[in-house]
Every structure is written in structure tokens, then in C-alpha cells.
Q: What sequence folds into this?
């Protein structure tokens, strides 16, 4: 797609840029394309004004929903909110940890109405087992661990500590749900997917990032994958960023880079992955060390500055484009392909 074609496409989509608590979406077809390397899809990202934008190239103009006041009011527009922010698979809710302090709680923002509701109160882990959505968007699994230690100086915010506690399901519609997950191994970055039988399963890694655990919804380990058996990764794998909706492909993080975050500063986890691995073969699927920021059934989103592309699991680039100015420098991005893809 030439820059001229991109400019025309963006001009046609300009009216669809929404400042609601969402991001930018482009008309992308990651499967077959439409002849000009564009398709359909929706991106969500954070602007420099701390608003959450949604950009949908084909959407009609909608009422702007702005959740930024909540983050600004808590004085937390940085590392905790950025690293804990997620969009539900149904695109109905945004969820995030409200603050970098012992009073932190899980917040939900309804992307349809703009309403804000408080979910789980402290103690809530945001540094290791951050809240993670089920694939159908019905509930989040949260880790009820007291992650804040004692203050070194009176009045100062204490430092986070490593700790382990029970998990709890929480629905933005219903509230707390019965606890069913009891993880036998301590670890981080649990992500859910749907297996071939239509059942929910998850993958997370141990604290030393030496093993990946595949578990069911009761927390039973069904498979242990050694990170050392995955080819194409660096020796310094430091975490897992995401998995695809089937649990076959995993996006790993080899290094935090010079600052650990797109806009500088340290975060509890990297804001993108560095390598996509096929867990069936143990091999990397992409060339040229493409980053991975959003995993999907047909492929994944990679990013280089404001340039984004969709790469399939054969390593072929299906489309590429440039993010609009509102989210061109967003530290986190969420992409949703068309519903029928």
C-alpha cells in the first residue's frame, strides 16, 4: 500500500475517529485483503491527553465517551494504568488498576455508556498475575494478593513485594463469582483461550520464566512447556505478553529494551512482545524480529513506531498502515479484527 493510498484511506476514515475510551480502527481484512492491502478492524489506544481512543474506519460517528478523568483524578496516568489496562473481548468494557498505591482497586469503564464502576478492592495483584479476561469477555480472573509491603518512611508509598494468594473471578455485570481456579504453581501473566473442545484454558509462566503452564479453569496443570525448548527465542526470555485465541501461538518477551516502555520509564511488564512462537513446533513464526502486540486466530499485529502491520502465522504480511495522530504514540494498543474473521 503506497503512502498516497494510505493518505486517501485515512482521509476517508477521519470522521470515524472517536474519543471515547477506545482507540483507532482501520478497515483491515487480515485473511484475504481487498486489493489495496487494507481491511477492517478496530484499534484502541491511549492519547497524549490520557484519553482512550477508538478508531473504526467504517463506524458511524458516535457520542464521545471519555474515561480519562478517572485516571487523572487518581494521579495515575503512568505505569500501573498502562500496564494493567485491558479491553474486554466483547469491546464492551475497559478494565484497569486504579492506582499505584495500597488503595488500588480494579475499575471498569463501560464503553457504551461511559459509566465507571469499582470491582475488586485491594489487595489486588497488578505486577504479576494481572487481571485477565475469559475469551468470551464474561469475567476477569484476579489475584487477591497483598502486593504492597511496609513503608520505608512514614507517609511514603511502600514498595511492591512478591507474594502469593487466592484467585477470584469477577464479572463487571454480576460482581464476584465463585472461586474455581487454584493454581498449583506460582507464576505470572495468565492468559485465557478456548481449546478445540470449546472449553476455557489458560497459559502462564513460572516466576523464573523457565516454564509455561497450560491449565484448565480449576487450575490443574495439563501441560508444562520448557522455555528452553522454544527455538528462535533469546536466552534472556523475561516473560509472556499474549497468546492467540486457540492457545497454539505465544508472544514472548526477550528484553525490556533500553527503557522498558515505549515512552520511557519502567513498567511491571513490557508493553509489547518480541517473538511469536508456534507451541506445536517450538519454532518462531515471523521474520525480521517483528514485535507482537496483539494476537489473533489468523495472525498478529506488529508495530514499528506509528507503523502497524498484520502478519499471519506463516510469516506473511497481510496488510500494513500508519496509526492516526491521536494514538500514533500510544504506549499500549489493542486490536480487534472484524467479527466474522
A:
Amino acid at each position: 500500500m503506497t503512502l498516497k493510498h494510505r493518505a486517501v484511506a485515512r482521509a476517508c476514515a477521519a470522521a470515524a475517529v472517536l474519543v471515547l475510551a477506545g482507540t483507532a480502527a482501520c478497515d483491515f481484512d487480515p485473511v484475504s485483503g481487498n486489493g489495496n492491502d487494507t481491511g477492517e478492524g478496530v484499534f484502541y489506544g491511549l492519547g497524549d491527553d490520557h484519553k482512550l481512543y477508538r478508531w473504526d474506519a467504517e463506524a458511524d460517528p458516535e457520542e464521545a465517551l471519555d474515561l480519562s478523568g478517572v485516571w487523572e483524578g487518581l494521579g495515575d496516568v503512568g505505569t500501573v494504568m498502562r500496564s494493567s489496562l485491558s479491553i474486554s473481548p466483547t469491546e464492551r468494557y475497559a478494565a484497569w488498576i486504579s492506582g499505584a498505591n495500597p488503595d488500588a482497586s480494579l475499575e471498569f469503564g463501560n464503553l457504551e455508556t461511559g459509566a465507571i464502576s469499582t470491582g475488586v478492592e485491594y489487595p489486588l495483584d497488578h505486577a504479576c498475575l494481572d487481571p485477565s479476561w475469559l475469551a468470551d469477555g464474561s469475567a476477569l480472573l484476579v489475584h487477591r494478593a497483598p502486593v504492597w509491603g511496609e513503608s520505608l518512611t512514614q507517609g511514603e508509598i511502600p514498595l511492591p513485594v512478591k507474594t502469593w494468594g487466592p484467585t477470584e473471578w469477577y464479572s463487571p455485570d454480576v460482581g464476584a463469582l465463585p472461586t474455581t481456579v487454584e493454581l498449583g504453581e506460582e507464576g505470572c501473566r495468565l492468559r485465557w483461550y478456548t481449546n478445540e473442545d470449546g472449553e476455557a484454558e489458560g497459559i502462564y509462566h513460572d516466576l523464573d520464566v523457565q516454564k509455561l503452564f497450560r491449565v484448565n479453569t480449576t487450575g490443574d496443570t495439563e501441560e508444562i512447556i520448557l522455555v528452553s525448548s522454544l527455538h528462535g527465542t533469546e536466552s534472556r526470555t523475561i516473560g509472556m505478553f499474549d497468546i492467540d485465541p486457540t492457545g497454539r501461538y505465544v508472544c514472548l518477551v526477550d528484553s525490556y529494551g533500553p527503557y522498558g516502555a515505549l515512552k520511557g520509564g519502567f513498567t511491571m511488564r513490557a508493553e509489547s512482545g518480541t517473538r511469536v512462537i508456534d507451541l506445536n513446533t517450538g519454532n518462531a513464526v515471523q521474520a525480521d524480529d517483528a514485535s507482537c502486540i496483539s494476537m489473533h486466530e489468523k495472525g498478529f499485529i506488529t508495530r514499528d513506531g506509528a507503523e502497524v502491520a498484520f502478519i499471519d502465522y506463516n510469516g506473511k504480511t497481510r496488510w500494513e498502515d500508519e496509526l492516526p495522530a491521536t494514538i500514533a504514540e500510544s504506549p499500549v494498543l489493542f486490536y480487534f479484527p472484524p467479527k466474522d474473521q
Notes: Confidence is low (pLDDT under 50) at residues 1-36, 60-64. The chain is about 5% helix and 30% strand. The two ends are 21 Å apart (CA to CA). The longest strand covers residues 187-194.
